[in-house]
Design the sequence.
């Protein structure tokens, strides 16, 4: 009897171990692309996908939803496809680089279709995802997205009234390996009047060669003014996505670490934020701990272009003819 109990206990232990192994393997598959990479055909860059092409795509190949769905943000799954929607994932194409592999995936339900980009690192570990193309229900608009040879993604939406284009919106992003996230480079919203953010340090002195106003649009700005010392910059940062739900804001003194770099690092503050200047632009790189200054999953990042200062109209000393 005792021997039977021991054998039963050993079998139960083996079954439990196998179940745990299966759970661990399933969890591993959620973050590794090894099991699905063979299902994608590699394409050359640039790659473009229009809403009409996406709607016409009838490929029935299916990716395991249990592996893909957890890697897509809830905001996309719930807001675009609907809460609890049963989403089918289909491979479209992939692009290999030395450091990452980009997978373009079609996501569809009975009523909607979209396309997503998923990035995996060189070890086949999941890094980030991004909504590549999410067509709307407006018959007057058309959308297209393109990945260029530099792996920059440009999403364009055009609105027409008959044969005439009455408006155009554009969003440009790029994957940032240091952040393992996509950073916004430029945003022009279609037919939407943006209220311009006024920098609270706007009237401060700006004699430093890097001082000025850098922007992506009216709601994404980096305002730089003179610091208290020659090696300091006073900086105000405001970032905001087009929905207005993902915001970030920071004001503080940055220390110049070289002629083209500066860092925000204050005692007692876990936030470390880097500025990198290149030509007429500045890039943000959140190194760590800046959650107090932004929303969840809203990293302080992006590349901002310097706004040309408005020059006063020159007046002539010559008397005007009467």
Sequence:
């Amino acid at each position: 009897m005792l021997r039977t109990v021991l054998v039963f206990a050993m079998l139960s232990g083996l079954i439990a171990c196998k179940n745990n192994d299966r759970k661990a393997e399933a969890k591993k598959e959620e973050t590794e692309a090894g099991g699905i990479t063979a299902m994608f055909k590699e394409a050359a860059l640039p790659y473009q996908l229009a809403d009409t092409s996406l709607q016409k795509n009838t490929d029935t190949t299916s990716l395991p939803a249990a592996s893909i769905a957890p890697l897509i943000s809830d905001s996309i799954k719930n807001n675009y496809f609907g809460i609890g929607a049963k989403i089918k994932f289909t491979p479209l194409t992939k692009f290999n680089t030395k450091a990452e592999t980009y997978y373009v995936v079609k996501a569809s339900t009975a009523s909607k279709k979209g396309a997503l980009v998923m990035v995996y690192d060189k070890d086949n570990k999941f890094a980030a995802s991004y909504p590549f193309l999410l067509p709307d229900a407006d018959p007057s608009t058309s959308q297209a997205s393109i990945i260029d040879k530099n792996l920059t993604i440009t999403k364009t939406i055009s609105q027409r009234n008959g044969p005439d284009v009455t408006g155009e919106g554009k969003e440009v992003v790029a994957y940032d390996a240091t952040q393992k996230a996509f950073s916004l480079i430029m945003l022009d919203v279609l037919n939407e009047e943006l209220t311009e953010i006024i920098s609270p340090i706007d009237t401060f002195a700006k004699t430093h060669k890097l001082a000025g106003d850098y922007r992506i649009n009216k709601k994404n700005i980096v305002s730089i003014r003179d610091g208290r010392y020659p090696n300091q910059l006073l900086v105000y940062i405001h970032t905001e996505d087009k929905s207005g739900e993902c915001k970030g804001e920071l004001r503080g003194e940055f220390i110049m670490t070289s002629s083209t770099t500066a860092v925000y690092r204050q005692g007692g503050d876990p936030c470390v934020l880097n500025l990198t200047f290149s030509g007429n632009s500045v890039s943000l790189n959140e190194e760590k701990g800046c959650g107090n200054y932004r929303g969840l999953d809203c990293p302080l990042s992006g590349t901002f272009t310097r706004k040309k200062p408005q020059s006063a109209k020159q007046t002539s000393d010559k008397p005007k003819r009467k």
Q: What stands out?
A: The first helix runs from residue 2 to 31. Residues 1-31, 312-322 have pLDDT under 50 and may be disordered. The chain has two domains: 37-188, 212-306.
